[in-house]
Amino acid sequence: MTPGDHGAVDAKPAVLVTGTAGFIGFHLARRLLAEGHPVIGIDNLNDYYDVNLKRARLRELGFAAADLEGLERRDGARLEAPGIVFYKADLQDRERMGAIFAGEKPRLVAHLAAQAGVRYSLQNPWAYMESNIIGFMNILENCRQHPVRHLVFASSSSVYGGNREQPFSVSHNVDHPLSLYAASKKANELMAHSYAHLYGIPATGLRFFTVYGPWGRPDMALFIFTRRILAGEPVEVYNHGNMKRDFTYIDDIVEGIWRVMNRPPSPDPGWDAQRPDPASSSAPYRIFNIGNNRPVDLLHFIGLIEKELGRRAKKVLLPLQPGDVPETSADIEALDRHVGFAPSTPVEDGVARFIQWYREYYGRD
Length: 365
Fold this sequence. Notes:
Blueprint: E1 15-18, H1 23-34, E2 39-43, H2 51-60, H3 65-68, E3 78-81, E4 84-88, H4 94-104, E5 108-111, H5 120-123, H6 125-145, E6 150-156, H7 180-199, E7 203-208, E8 211-212, H8 221-231, E9 234-237, E10 244-245, E11 248-249, H9 250-261, E12 285-290, E13 296-297, H10 298-309, E14 314-317, H11 333-339, H12 347-362
Parallel strand pairs: 1-2, 1-5, 2-4, 5-6, 6-7, 7-12, 8-11, 9-14
Antiparallel strand pairs: 3-4, 10-13
């Protein structure tokens, strides 16, 4: 039985996961397979970061190494492994995305693919328009043409932008993004709401806060710091170290997605158009933060890495970068109220688990 073929009983609905070879998408796909859900994966395997790492994640999901060799150069590729089918495809390819939805008939969609990176958006803005805007439009249109039970999509803590009120609440105004990446994520929230309102598509946006852990992205702070400290290279510390981040461990992120995915939103009967709450709606639409709710000083975070590696970092203190913010902290009351879950992994444990994975994967002492 292929992932799109559910048989007579749809006890475990098929889930389409975009960004399956990415950090969060890989971990979610692995959780879904463990839960017995058929998975339909989509990723374009672009070279924003190491494609070898993306292929390694796909191997962990059960795909044969021989089938994955050179996959990033094979347009139109379709692979199968137990419980999962994988398509190499661009989100902005309207015809291909329509064919995947029509053929596989997913009942749930976890849209995690995007062009990531606040700093990269300053250098290559068109990548964000193509993937994050046009690509998301294709997801929405296909959820309309091939109705699904629930669309869960990745937003970002970056949408809070110029807001300085801490902790960040889903009821806060987010009209002042500081990067094009943040603006594209805010646009996704608005686009999803319009489709929830017009077509009744249950949609939930999740604002992730600084996700880290094993199999993470090489452009993220923990990965960069670890690699540079081991190599004896300087570590760039922005805002002269006066930074705090709500580091959230990957297992907590996946648990939050899992619980939210299994509880599609309904129209909020208490929503007041005279005093509109941006986190809910008269449509089947919700927004939640997923963060650890325990901001960590960046220098303390580097100290934890130093302790695990047994090496000292050579720190270079620099000004705050354009598009960046000095502090993030998630108010997770709405998430806890909705699904009874709050992230809880201590950063000390999460950093230790990442360092263990890094040493095993790269064979570094």
